[in-house]
């Protein structure tokens, strides 16, 4: 039986085929060349960690999710981006997937225009064409979910991100994916490796995932702990495991005062 990740991959392939039929590679590249220059996503995280000795925050603009349904009804991406920036976030993550997250490409463009922070396009990449599309939308970083791509596609996506001057967050959830990610970034000094504490197939969340995989992360990679982080104690736990950055959505999106909640989480 197919699970949610398989279903997302299936509709994404159809969606990308339709987008590619409407906008050729040359046309999407022309749009990408017109976009505002990349802001340096990994560098922003590394700089903040160097300055503070604490994990830097990637704050996520997330309206809904398959595991939680609607998370935030009062949803204004530019206002949320500004609240995150004032609260101390180093980068943003913006969900652009519509069917499962009620996201939209326009949310990324609008959020990025409202702040000076680098932005991750949080979507499911199954084709290198989507990398140029992400850049055309203004993204500074793309997501490569190792569970969703084979090694060849992962390498193509990473090469495309590099070609466009973008960073790539390479997401893992188990030791096998971490080993594949380590091979993928071998010889590079700009690796950004994520450990998702949530299984995207069962939705089970366990911070021990970061603790278990951190030791397997390649030397020199900047490690990002993703999902299920609600309290400063959670932050301290993944920091102790070696995380230099955090990706947080739900716990901040559920707060009335997002700026204060962001500050409190990082305190
Ligand atoms: O969040 C989900 O339910 C989900 C389901 C299937 C695929 C991906 C999913 N989430 C993407 C993420 O990784 C999170 O949005 C991100 O790490 C933030 O997590 P959280 O702080 O727990 O909202």
Automatic annotation (TrEMBL):
<feature type="domain" description="Indole-3-glycerol phosphate synthase">
    <location>
        <begin position="5"/>
        <end position="265"/>
    </location>
</feature>
<comment type="pathway">
    <text>Amino-acid biosynthesis; L-tryptophan biosynthesis; L-tryptophan from chorismate: step 4/5.</text>
</comment>
<dbReference type="InterPro" id="IPR011060">
    <property type="entry name" value="RibuloseP-bd_barrel"/>
</dbReference>
<dbReference type="InterPro" id="IPR013798">
    <property type="entry name" value="Indole-3-glycerol_P_synth_dom"/>
</dbReference>
<dbReference type="GO" id="GO:0004640">
    <property type="term" value="F:phosphoribosylanthranilate isomerase activity"/>
</dbReference>
<keyword id="KW-0210">Decarboxylase</keyword>
<keyword id="KW-0057">Aromatic amino acid biosynthesis</keyword>
<keyword id="KW-0456">Lyase</keyword>
<protein>
    <recommendedName>
        <fullName>Indole-3-glycerol phosphate synthase</fullName>
        <ecNumber>4.1.1.48</ecNumber>
    </recommendedName>
</protein>
<dbReference type="GO" id="GO:0004425">
    <property type="term" value="F:indole-3-glycerol-phosphate synthase activity"/>
</dbReference>
<dbReference type="GO" id="GO:0000162">
    <property type="term" value="P:L-tryptophan biosynthetic process"/>
</dbReference>
<dbReference type="InterPro" id="IPR013785">
    <property type="entry name" value="Aldolase_TIM"/>
</dbReference>
<dbReference type="Pfam" id="PF00218">
    <property type="entry name" value="IGPS"/>
</dbReference>
<dbReference type="InterPro" id="IPR001468">
    <property type="entry name" value="Indole-3-GlycerolPSynthase_CS"/>
</dbReference>
<keyword id="KW-0028">Amino-acid biosynthesis</keyword>
<comment type="similarity">
    <text>Belongs to the TrpC family.</text>
</comment>
<dbReference type="InterPro" id="IPR045186">
    <property type="entry name" value="Indole-3-glycerol_P_synth"/>
</dbReference>
<keyword id="KW-0822">Tryptophan biosynthesis</keyword>
């Amino acid at each position: 039986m197919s699970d949610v990740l398989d279903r997302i991959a299936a509709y994404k392939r159809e969606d990308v085929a339709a987008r590619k039929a409407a906008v050729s590679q040359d046309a999407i590249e022309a749009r990408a060349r017109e976009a505002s220059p990349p802001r340096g996503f990994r560098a922003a995280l590394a700089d903040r960690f160097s300055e503070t000795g604490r994990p830097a925050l990637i704050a996520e603009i997330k309206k809904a999710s398959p595991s939680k349904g609607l998370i935030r009804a009062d949803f204004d991406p530019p206002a949320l981006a500004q609240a995150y920036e004032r609260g101390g976030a180093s980068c943003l993550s913006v969900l652009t997937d519509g069917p499962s997250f009620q996201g939209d490409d326009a949310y990324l463009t609008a959020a990025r225009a409202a702040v000076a922070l680098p932005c991750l396009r949080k979507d499911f990449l199954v084709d290198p064409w989507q990398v140029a599309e992400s850049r055309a939308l203004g993204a500074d970083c793309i997501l490569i979910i190792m569970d969703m791509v084979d090694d060849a596609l992962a390498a193509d996506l990473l090469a495309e991100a590099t070609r466009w001057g973008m960073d790539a967050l390479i997401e893992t959830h188990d030791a096998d994916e971490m080993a594949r990610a380590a091979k993928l970034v071998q010889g590079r000094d700009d690796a950004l490796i994520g450990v998702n504490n949530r299984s995207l197939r069962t939705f089970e969340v366990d911070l021990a995932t970061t603790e278990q995989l951190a030791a397997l992360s390649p030397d020199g990679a900047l490690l990002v702990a993703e999902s299920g982080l609600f309290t400063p104690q959670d932050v301290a736990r993944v920091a102790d495991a070696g995380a230099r950055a955090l990706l947080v959505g739900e716990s901040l999106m559920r707060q009335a005062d997002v700026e204060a909640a962001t500050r409190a989480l990082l305190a």
